[in-house]
Amino acid sequence: MKLLYTDIRTSLTEILTREAEDLVATGKRVFYIAPNSLSFEKERAVLECLSQQASFAITVTRFAQMARYLVLNDLPTKTNLDDIGLGMVFYKCLAELDPKELRVYGAIKQDPQFIQQLIELYHEMTTAQMSFLDLESLTDEDKRADLLLIFEKVTTYLNQSQLAQGSQLSHLIEAIENNKVSSDFSQLALVIDGFTRFSAEEEHVVDLLHRKGVEIVIGAYASKKAYTSPFAEGNLYQASVEFLHHLGAKYQTPAQDRSQTHETMDSFDKASRLLESSYDFSELALDIDEKDRDNLQIWSCLTQKEELELVARSIRQKLHDNPDLSYKHFRILLGDVASYQLSLKTIFDQYQIPFYLGRSESMAHHPLTQYVESILRLKRYRFRQEDLINLLKTGLYTDLSQAEIDAFEQYLRYLGINGLPAFQQTFTKSHHGKFDLERLNAIRLRVLSPLETLFASRKQKAENLLQKWSAFLKNAALSKQMQGLTSTMEAPEQERQAEVWKAFCHVLEQFATVFDGSQVSLEDFLALLHSGLSLSQYRTIPATVDTVLVQSYDLIAPLTADFVYAIGLTQDYLPKISQNTSLLTDEERQSLNQATEEGARLLIASSENLKKNRYTMLSLVNAARKQLILSAPSLLNENESKESAYLHELVSFGFSRIEKRMNHKNLSKEDMSSYHSLLSSLVVYHQQAASSENEQDLTFVTVLARVMGKKLDQKGLANPALPTSPSSKPLAKDTLQALYPADKEFYLSTSGLTEFYRNEYSYYLRYVLCLQEELRLRPDARSHGNFLHRIFERALKLPAENPFDQRLEQAIKETSQEREFEAIYQESLEAQFTKEVLLDVARTTGHILRHNPAIETIQEEATFGGKDQAFIQLDNARSVHVRGKVDRIDRLKADGALGVVDYKSSLTQFQFPSFFNGLNSQLPTYLAALKIEGEQNFFGAMYLEMAEPVQSLLAVKNLAGAVVEASKSMKYQGLFLEKESSNLGEFYNKNKANQLTDEEFQLLLDYNAHLYKKAAERILEGQFAINPYTENGRSIAPYVQQHQAITGFEANYHLGQARFLEKLDLAADGKRLVGEKLKQAWFEKMREELNR
Any idea what DSSP says for residue 582? Predict the structure, then answer.
């Protein structure tokens, strides 16, 4: 046994490789052992250090793989289980236990997370060289009883079924102890590199091999000062020094110092010594000069994305300045891999930098996993609509085409079909022939039949269940669909798909092994299959040797690469706080370690943490050979974050902190990096719409745009870097001719007019292309409106001699029984509740209709605007027809003047500003239509709110006050003629600002016609601008359709082309106008507009 240590700026691998060569010279076979996370790189490093560049006698490996190279004799033949199989064993054994038998874990015994924790504990106990009986020394009685019962059941089952489960090391230990190894131990040697502690299992292997006469050399990093210091607590090298002392005491050999003397102290050595002295409280004064500040930089960035872009630019710049460098000379370390994983791919692809993130990726999001999950959920929740749609959308279930799946989904959503009985019924509602029922029913049967056959399976033997499953997969054409999925993919992507298929088959094999001969229910089988697939991972291997390696910073070894960028080093991630998520608390681990014999010990994360973190920081500072950049963003995962305390310390030693920012406002030569990134910088530059100040930069940008444009032209692509605003082309002449032939009437509705003035393009989509929202057979605003209208229409048509309340109730009863409303409002409990609310509204609003002796209703739901009545004439003598429906027409008994009423579901008042801008011309249009039909005498046009008047009791002093407030909203709101106002009762809101003279009334109608004329001219020219209106000039209101997905209109970039509403100028004294004055000002504005 030989122990060596060296200072951290001398390569330990070089020293240990020389030791290995010396051992080979004496005829030994050498195993060079590295930790799991480093074995691949270590192999390369060892080969580079060998004097001959190669050797057959040295094998670089890790503890677990060592057994492969030793000859093991007559081992018992057992079937091997991996973690997925072990999980199934736990699931099976726990399923057989009654929840009452487990006092602590009874309620969660089938929970996947709990089973995962049990698997981890099982492995930990094996690694710690403990048996399950050691759990006897737990103090918590119930927990102890539960865990012993579970583990006893699992171990018994594994032994009975001849199933092997355990680490490769435990098999090796068993083989050595039982003399099953036929290799000659005296010819073997072990060189161990990169460890600062062994697990109990690894230490046991080293011990056994040492006793068998194997030559062993162990190396670690430590400074002489730390090794000889009597006090190690808190020292940066504490982990490795305690490791060396422990082994030295155990094998009675002191460690040898192999540090080399360096002529000059480099920047990283200075940083390490300063850090070390700050932790062991010794005084040390070293000068940090400019060169050091360049070699070790601390960056402060704004966001993760910016940080990654700056790193990518820096790598590109270095490769550009130095042709000898290649990607493998760079290493990127991440504070938290999960936070950076997604942006890393986007940005490095953009800068065209090949990288390899050595992190296995879960298969949980693969369509095949989703496929199994959807089937499980269909079984568990009895056919919910979204589960069936998810299953079809995986693209793996049956060979339906995308069009068929879309049609089927649309129909399910239309009828809101849920639950197996609903799916089993033949589809009969076709919504006036809109749906092709024959085709939909054929699809329904194709989707249902394989699932129904599968779900009919009762609890049965595992092998029978697997046969049924396999028949189901054949029926549903899974393998064909999987092949279809992969056929169009690139080769690396196809390999990934093959891995998923392998994992799927592997989980089924483990299931068959574990449940051989047992009874299993279909739901359990599907749950196990799903959790097995979710736990499977893709194996990833770097595509080429020349690639930038990316990894978590805590796996770094000293002197790894020439240039190292460590990013995301905020105080949350450096130092890393390890959480104990296992079933045993730190106290319980401590007591188990004390109760068991020497050599068996569980790891206690919290106490190991401090030692490990300090040593990691030291490795991090020494990770680079030439330049190290440590960086922390101010925003990490959208939250504010502070940089790590270790970075503060380095700054306090004299290293400089650099504020780094990406400047999108102007482009310069520094931005030259790669074609893709340059293109995206150019796009961002133009989106900022801020041009550079100086002439030189402008020229640079113009030339750059031209060069990029040429390159894009060669590929036949449009140049996205040239500033473009979303714009629409006018419709072609022949299209217009087909849409609006000259000999046919041109119709426009009030809702169409409003839509046109809201956003012209929205009118085009809705009224020209006739795009519709998805059909739903469920209550919505339109059906509520129709329902209430129908009730009032009926009530007012019934004979007047009956009391009004009686007529209303009769109308409610008859309308509820109409087929269309019955279908909608009986569909679900929610719909029935909605109907009750609507009936309350009908009864409340009915009270206004009842108490109005001054008027009589002459027509309900009156339509206007036929072929023979043109609404306006255009300059080219073409006529425009306006069609619509008035909810109600009333007549004053006093002088026969007419008024129109429009029912609204919320409080609506007539607003002059909206009317002037074309957003509110409903009431004037109704009056104009009646006038065209020959009526001359009017009293007004109004809205009636149909809603339950809810009053806040905080706002009123007593109940009588609440009644008064409530009746305020229960009034007719709108426009009234001054001359008729005396004939109107208390139910009309006759505010002065709402009363018009005859002249104003005529002006209103003229301006309304002007609005129609303007819109009709633009529509007939085929001009539809993308111009949603803005009220405040800063943003677009949420109820204005922008159709972003179609037009690409984004308010923050394109607000300049939105339609700004016309407003009044302030009065001379700077005050806002109100009431009567406001009305006069708007009429003045209308006159001006008409006189233009």
Answer: S
Of 1025, 1028, 931, 1018, whose CA–CA distance to 746 is shortest? 1018
Interatomic CA distance for residues 551 and 783, integer angstroms: 58
Q: Select the highest-mean-pLDDT range: 546-555, 594-603, 662-671.
A: 546-555
Quickly count: other Cβ atoms within 10 Å of residue 272's Cβ. Answer: 24
Give the other-Cβ count within 10 Å of 823's Cβ: 13
| Beta-sheet strands, E only, within 473-612 | 519-520, 537-538, 548-552, 561-567
Q: Of 67, 32, 58, 33, give the one whose Cα is nearest residue 180.
A: 67
Split at pLDDT 50, 70, 90, the class of 797 is: confident
* Lookup: tokens for 543: 């595509």
| From 276-285, 316-325, 991-1000, the region with the lowest mean pLDDT | 276-285
Of the segments 161-165, 339-343, 596-600, which one has the largest average pLDDT value?
A: 339-343
Neighbours of 317 (CB within 10 A): 13
Q: What angle do CA 899, 902, 906 make, to 5 degrees?
A: 140
What is the rounded CA–CA span in Å between residue 880 and residue 734?
A: 20
Whole-angstrom distance, CA of residue 166 vs CA of residue 439: 55
Sign of the dihedral defined by the CA atoms of residues 590, 595, 599, 601, in that order: negative
Q: Which two tokens stand for residue 959?
A: 């109940």
What tokens appear for 727 in the block? 């714009």
Closest CA to 692 of 675, 705, 677: 705
Least trusted range by pLDDT, from 49-53, 234-238, 954-958: 954-958
- List % helix, strand, coil for the chain (3-state, nearest 5): 50, 15, 35
Reduced 3-state DSSP string for 243-305 = HHHHHHHHHCCCCEECCCCCCCCCHHHHHHHHHHHHHCCCCCCCCCCHHHHHHEEEEEEEEHH
Is 918 within 8 Å of 1011 (Cβ atoms)? yes
Tell me the per-residue pLDDT of 445-479, one tens digit each, with 9 for 90 and over: 999 999 999 999 899 999 999 999 999 999 999 99
Q: How many CB atoms lie within 10 A of CB 282?
A: 11
User: Which helix (DSSP H) or strand (DSSP E) does residue 921 occupy?
Assistant: none
Kindly give, in sequence order, each residue whose CB lies less than 8 Å from that of residue 655, ignoring residues fewer than 6 positions away: 271, 288, 292, 293, 296, 297, 298
Contacts of 121 (CB under 8 A, 6+ apart): 147, 582, 583, 584
Instruction: Please enumerate in sequence order all residues whose Cβ is within 8 A of that of 359, keeping only pairs 6 or more positions apart, or say none.
Output: 337, 341, 540, 551, 552
β-sheet bridge partners, residue 33: 61, 192
Q: Are strands 879-882 and 561-567 parallel, antiparallel or unpaired?
A: unpaired
Rounded to an integer, what distance in angstroms lies between the CA atom of residue 155 and that of residue 146?
14
Which residues make Cβ contacts (< 8 Å) with residue 286, sequence separation at least 6? 265, 270, 273, 274, 653
Q: What is the largest CA-CA distance in the chain?
A: 126
pLDDT band at 972, cuts 50/70/90? confident
How large is the average pLDDT for residues 590-618?
87
On whether the CB atoms of residues 39 and 31 are closer than 8 A, the answer is no
- Comparing C-alpha atoms, which of 356, 351, 341, 677 is closest to residue 547? 356
Quick one: pLDDT at residue 267?
93
